[in-house]
């Protein structure tokens, strides 16, 4: 008895349909921006401790913890694809500009560098957001608004500064100084889970507002 096989034409149509679906999906992701690549950059790392807080703890640990919370929260938003410049306590050289290169090579849509501030005078407190290129200014304003609202810390404003992570990145890029780790009360709050969870929400909300994802 002859085996019944589906006609060749149906097989070919099925294969082309499958190729078409995959091609359309890729096209809508890359050109239609149904998914945005966001680089979160935890400041410092490894032998570069960053600021030493009032309690003696290092900025590099604060920035990593907060960045990981942002990454985790952003996973709930299917249109955000978050990439961290470091996921552990490693040193990233500023000489070879690895942080902006990471974002440029990835073709990232946004770059957000997370820091905690330091100053000789322990009374100084508050949040500052930096940008360098003109096309990063609106991102800086949106992110700053959300972070200041979320923390309730003093608003020290949005400022232009020639930081290499902001200068060498090709996409809108900001550096957020979340608060002063050298201010004992502010540091104490910044090191709490509650503050960091709240700030992760503020940062993701800022990203979503800027990208008009809501
Ligand atoms: Zn820093």
Helix-strand sequence: HEHEHEEHEHEHH
Structural class: alpha/beta
Widest beta sheet: strand line-up: 2-1-3-6-4-5
Number of helices: 7
Bound molecules: zinc ion
CATH superfamily: Zn-dependent exopeptidases
Strand-residue proportion: 15-25%
Oligomeric grouping of the chains: single chain
Cα(first) to Cα(last) distance is: 61 Å
Major beta sheet, specifics?
A: 6 strands, mixed
Give the strand tally: 6
Which regions contain 5 or more consecutive residues with pLDDT less than 50? none
The CATH class is Alpha Beta
Give the C-alpha Rg. 22 Å
The pLDDT mean sits at: 92
Number of domains: 1
Morphology call: elongated
**Secondary-structure arrangement, i.e. CATH architecture:** 3-Layer(aba) Sandwich
Fraction in helix: 40-55%
Description:
- By secondary structure, this protein is α/β, with parallel strands linked by helices.
- The chain has one domain: Zn-dependent exopeptidases (Aminopeptidase, 3-Layer(aba) Sandwich).
- 43% of the residues lie in helices and 18% in strands.
- The protein has helices at 8-30, 59-74, 98-106, 137-151, 164-167, 184-190, 193-210; strands spanning 36-42, 80-84, 110-117, 127-131, 155-160, 173-180.
- The chain has a 6-stranded mixed beta sheet, sandwiched between helices.
- Helix 4 (137-151) links the parallel strand 4 (127-131) and strand 5.
- Helix 4 runs antiparallel to helix 7.
- The longest helix has 23 residues, at 8-30.
- It is elongated, with a radius of gyration of 22 Å.
- The N and C termini lie far apart (61 Å).
- The model has no long low-confidence stretch (mean pLDDT 92).
- Zinc ion binds at residues 43-44, 50, 59, 115.
- One of its GO terms (biological process) is peptidoglycan catabolic process.
- GO terms for molecular function: N-acetylmuramoyl-L-alanine amidase activity.
- Keywords: Hydrolase, Membrane, Transmembrane, Transmembrane helix.
- InterPro entries: MurNAc-LAA_cat, N-acetylmuramoyl_amidase_3.
């Amino acid at each position: 008895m002859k085996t019944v096989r589906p006609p060749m034409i149906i097989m070919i149509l099925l294969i082309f349909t499958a190729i078409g679906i995959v091609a359309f999906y890729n096209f809508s992701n890359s050109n239609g921006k149904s998914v945005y690549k966001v680089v979160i950059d935890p400041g410092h790392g490894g032998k570069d401790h960053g600021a030493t807080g009032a309690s003696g703890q290092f900025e590099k640990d604060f920035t990593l913890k907060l960045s990981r919370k942002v990454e985790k929260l952003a996973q709930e938003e299917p249109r955000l694809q978050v990439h961290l410049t470091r996921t552990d306590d490693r040193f990233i050289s500023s000489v070879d500009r690895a942080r902006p290169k990471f974002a440029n090579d990835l073709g990232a849509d946004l770059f957000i560098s997370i820091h905690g501030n330091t100053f000789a005078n322990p009374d100084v407190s508050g949040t500052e957001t930096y940008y360098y290129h003109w096309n990063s200014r609106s991102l800086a304003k949106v992110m700053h608004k959300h972070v200041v609202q979320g923390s309730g810390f003093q608003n020290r404003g949005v400022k232009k500064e020639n930081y290499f992570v902001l200068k060498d990145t090709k996409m809108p890029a900001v550096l957020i100084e979340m608060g002063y780790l050298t201010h004992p009360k502010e540091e104490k709050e910044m090191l709490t889970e509650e503050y960091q969870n709240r700030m992760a929400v503020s940062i993701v909300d800022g990203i979503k507002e800027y990208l008009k994802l809501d």
